[in-house]
Amino acid sequence: MNFLVSLVMYSLLLNDFTSAQTLIQDSCKKAAAINLQLKYDFCVNSLTQDPESKTATTLEGLVFASTKNAAAKIMDVKRFVEQILKAKKYGPGMEAALSTCVELYDEANGSLNTAFSSVQSHDYNTANVYISAALDAPDNCEDGFKEGKLEKSPVTNKNNILLQTILIPLAFTNML
Ligand SMILES: *[C@@H]1O[C@H](CO)[C@@H](O)[C@H](O)[C@H]1NC(C)=O
Prior knowledge:
Layout (H helix, E strand, L loop, with lengths): L1 H33 L5 H9 L2 H4 L4 H29 L6 H27 L3 H23 L9 H18 L3
The chain binds 2-acetamido-2-deoxy-beta-D-glucopyranose (NAG).
C-alpha cells in the first residue's frame, strides 16, 4: 500500500517535472528563434538550474521566474563588484567605472521589478520596455572600462552571462 502510494506520487512528480522540462525547451526554442543573440543551450541550462523556472507550468509563469532570476543574477554581480571596490582591488581610474556598474545594476534591478509588476497586470508591452532597459546595464557597464586607458573590465564574462540571462524574459514577453 505504502509502496503503491509512493509509486503514484513519484509518477505524478515525474510527470510534472517532465512537462516543466518540455515547457522550458519549447519556450527556449521559440525564444532563440525570435532573438538570435539568445543561445538555446544557455536558456535551457539557466532555467533548469532555477527552482522556480523549473516548476513553472505556463509561459507566463516562466516570465515571472526568469525575470526574478535575472534580477537575482544582476544583484550577484553587483555584490561581486562591490567586493572589488571594498577591497580596493583595482588599478588607477577604475573606481569610477566600477561604481558606475554598481549604479547600473541597481537601476536594472529596479527596471526588472517594474517589469515584474507589469506582467502581474498583464501589461506585457510595458514589461518588455523595462526588460529592454535592464538589458542595457551589462553593455553600459563594459563601456565604462573602454574609456580612457583603464585596465580590462573584471566583469566581462559576468556581463556576457547577464546579457543572456536578461534576454530570456525579454524574448518570453514577446511570446505572450
Ligand atoms: C531590487 O529592487 C527591489 C524593488 O525596487 C528592491 O526591493 C530590492 O531590495 C532590490 N534588490 C537589491 C538586492 O537591492
